[in-house]
Specification:
The protein contains 22 helices and 13 strands. The chain is of the alpha/beta class and 468 residues long. Among the domains are: 231 residues, Rossmann fold (3-Layer(aba) Sandwich); 74 residues, no CATH class. Strands 1-10-7-4-2-3 form a 6-stranded parallel β-sheet, with helices on both faces. The chain is globular.
């Protein structure tokens, strides 16, 4: 794990995607799951007459937060501290993971229960705890499946989306969770029996937060299974890891997001469990509450006037479920805990290390993600922006200048099209009606892309012949 945690891709996206494209079972699992979720989302969103107004309001609230983030963070810290919580600050993933590990070790426990949390995945917390001899038990069903499989999540909302029911049954069987069939209720019951003892014996729980209310110091977790409620109420110590962008100014602002989030994420009108806690309440819930506020590249992202809109993200995963690229390669190809369209703009800004510079190219720029985003993050705009600001080889810059010069003249463009038709004649460059391999230096382009052969005539040529 690097200082920025698990947001750094270690393999260039084109290479990783090429490997995943050969997994036909993965593609079938992804298609079935994403289409089911997106269809549910469309139905419940269609019921809301002011959906677009809610999207605009959500974007405006998040932009207001980003414009006065230091002030709101200080207000949140003061309110949470007054309510009995202990607030900590972490500059990066390494500092946050070490801080949480120290807090757990101070309790003397060797096992903690965890609520599904993107922030803890981001900082590599489970790995840090394991190195310190502390077992972290994931209690979200999908996260538990991934953990038992020795795998990593591939989706923001549904971490085990790349598995089907039979595969999950086999994972449970290998780990001693008896599930005689792959019927979903049977699988859920096997997980429930396994987790019940963990909940009742745990002394420490670790969570993230969907929202943090600045005026009151309140943290909010929304979930579907009830495991989060168990973690938040039973243990003696609760440690919450929260990205600094999760703030909302007032309690009233939650109204907007509690309408946007469930519809956009699980296709539900409201989430089954909404848990809110403010500091410590004697005789009710944890006796000690720690809140770790994490930067880890968010301040750097905030400095980019175009890219900062990525920090509006409420982790609903709607953009993943409509993305044609994600549907075909899955989340692991992105190499970051934040996959899909939002990961393609968030990860490179939070950390430019490793192969993250290739992630802005993991898109067709179709715009489906922007249409689905409940807080109107213009992901295509940010993708293009990041492509322009990234490094470009001299040969690519020269090719783009030549293309620009050609397309500025109708006659030059027509001549180029005629030359392209003649150049496509060699059979070795094309199979199945597509250009699949070009000689160097264009081989760098065709290594990851196919293109249709140029048509026998252009539209202008067809038009001229027909009108003649």
């Amino acid at each position: 794990m690097t200082g920025t945690g698990n947001i750094v891709a270690r393999k260039a996206f084109p290479a990783a995607a090429k490997e995943k494209l050969t997994d036909t079972q993965l593609r079938a699992n992804l298609r079935r799951a994403t289409h089911t979720i997106r269809d549910k989302r469309l139905r419940v969103v269609g019921e809301v007459p002011d959906w677009e107004a809610l999207r605009v309001a959500g974007a405006a609230i998040k932009d207001d937060v980003l414009s006065r983030l230091p002030e709101l963070l200080e207000r949140f810290e003061a309110a949470a501290t007054a309510a009995g919580a202990v607030v900590h600050w972490a500059r990066d993933a390494a500092e946050a993971a070490a801080l949480v590990t120290d807090l757990v070790q101070a309790t003397g426990t060797t096992e903690v229960v965890k609520i599904k949390s993107m922030a803890t995945q981001e900082i590599g917390l489970n790995e840090e705890l394991e190195a310190a001899g502390i077992a972290a038990v994931e209690t979200d069903l999908a996260e538990l499946i991934v953990q038992l499989a020795g795998d990593t999540p591939s989706h923001i909302l549904v971490p085990a989306i790349h598995y089907n029911r039979s595969q999950i049954r086999d994972i449970f069987t290998r780990n001693g969770l008896s599930a005689l069939t792959d019927d979903p209720p049977a699988l859920a019951e096997a997980a429930r029996r396994h987790l019940r003892a963990k909940f009742l014996s745990a002394k420490v729980a670790i969570s993230g937060a969907n929202f943090a209310v600045a005026e009151s110091g309140t943290l909010v977790v929304v979930e579907s299974e009830g495991n989060g409620r168990m973690c938040l109420t039973l243990p003696e110590t609760l440690i919450s890891v929260v990205g600094i962008e999760k703030l909302v100014p007032t309690f009233r602002d939650l109204e907007v997001f509690l309408q946007l989030l469930p519809r956009s994420s699980t296709g539900e009108r409201m989430n089954p469990y909404t848990s809110l806690w403010t500091g410590v309440t004697p005789g009710d819930g944890p006796r000690t509450v720690h809140i770790v506020l994490v930067d880890n590249g968010r301040t750097d992202t905030l400095a980019d006037e175009v890219g900062r809109q990525a920090l509006r993200c409420i982790r609903c995963s709607a953009c993943l479920n409509v993305c044609p690229v994600y549907e075909r390669v899955g989340g692991h190809a992105y190499g970051s805990v934040y996959p899909g369209p939002i990961g393609a703009i968030l990860s490179p800004q939070m950390s430019g290390e490793g192969a993250n510079s290739t992630l802005p190219y993991a898109s067709t720029l179709c715009g489906a993600c922007y249409d689905a985003c409940p807080v109107r993050i213009n992901i295509p705009e940010v993708l293009v922006h990041l492509r322009q600001t990234g490094p470009h080889p001299a040969a690519e810059r020269a090719a783009m200048r030549a293309l620009s010069w050609t397309m500025r003249s109708r006659r030059r463009y027509a001549a180029a099209l005629r030359a392209a038709r003649r150049g496509a004649a060699p059979v070795r460059w094309a199979t199945g009606g597509k250009v699949r391999r070009l000689p160097w230096p264009m081989s760098a382009w065709t290594a990851a892309r196919d293109a249709p052969l140029p048509p026998k005539q252009t539209f202008r040529e067809w038009w001229a012949r027909e009108r003649a």
